[in-house]
Amino acid sequence: MLSKLTTAFCLVCVPLLAQNAGVALSLTGAIERARIYSPQFLSAEIASLSAREDRIQSKSNLLPSVNYFNQYVYTQGNGTPTGIFVGNNGVHFYTSTGTVHEELSLTHRADYRRSIAAEVAARARQDIARRGLSATVAQAYYAMLNAQRHATNAKTSLDESRQFADITRKQERGGEAARSDVVKAELVVQQHERDYLEAQLVVEKTRVGLSILLFPDLNRDFTILDDLLNLEPLGQFEDLRTLAVSTSPEIRAADATIQQARFGIDSARSGYIPSLVIDYFYGLSANQFAVHNPDGANNLGNSVLGTLNIPIWNWGATRSRVRQAELQRRQAEIDRLYTGRQLQAALDTSYLEAQSARTQLDSLKASLDLAVESRRLTLLRYEAGEVTVLEVVDAQNTLSLARNAYDDGLVRYRLALASLQTLTGTL
Length: 427
Description:
By secondary structure, this protein is of the alpha+beta class. 68% of the residues lie in helices and 12% in strands. The protein has helices spanning 2-18, 27-37, 39-60, 106-173, 179-214, 237-247, 249-269, 317-383, 389-424; strands spanning 23-25, 65-74, 92-104, 222-224, 275-286, 300-309. Helix 4 packs antiparallel against helix 5 (179-214), helix 4 runs antiparallel to helix 7 (249-269) and helix 8 runs antiparallel to helix 9.
């Protein structure tokens, strides 16, 4: 699986270093790209792969191991068969044996089952990192999209203010407007020019923030797709709640942690139980490195060694480990309950937010339409000499605010929807 990470990096990351120009990204595409570069997500993925290796290693403790052992011992001779060290079997002593080792212990079995639960928890934490990254990218994506819309609105307001300034100048030349009207209109133009420059600055700032998530360098030559008008339906709350609970990585991680703690108790309690170690040897252990002795006796043979370890007294260490494991299980169960409440609260909050945002969109759109009509009518009345310049400026400002408010409402709904999709695992 680690090779898959390398392959993904080579196939996607390296070519993009030379081909980032003009990249157009949707929200889904941005999230997929962010997973290639996010250190938090990659760390969680590596932790999951490491937990898998821990499980494999733990499983190997349950299975027999095979080794081949070779040894030569030389002892200084002194005229006796054993040499100068009487504990040795001869001046020349050879050992060449194959060994099968097996340890029958409940500790290893409990540790293996605990490693399985640890792997499940690590995979769930990887999913948590994936969803957290999706939420982060969605925030940055819609922040940039909102900034772009505000910049567009600022440019539209600037064009409208310039149009009104032209009207006041024409009115002044025709003797139908005072010089003060031209001055006021020019001031409004200058203000809208500053607003437009500021909006462009915000766009570039949000572009940098999103670029950090999506590219290995601070590449800013990319565009994002505007999906704000794609008003996807919310769906039924109960359906979303069922889906969120069934797919929640936080709950999976909490359940796996409880399993880990339970198997930890079994592992600790196995310290009270005897363990059996069996070793089987086959080969030679003789004074000649040969199948037969000079007298023709066979040097090849087998041997079995069985060891039973019976725990007697360890100053309460085993009992302490059991109590400690039980406390860890209790903590894991408390965390599981709190995780469930957190999920319910997050789902309720996101759904209410999305519901409120969706309801307000109709009102915001109606206000925008009214503001457009109000500016049009006010401008006509100004040209007819029925209203002052201040009323036109007020209508222009109201329209500018209405445009931004409507776009803010669209972004608010999309973010709330993205939050729900993150909680249910559909983003």
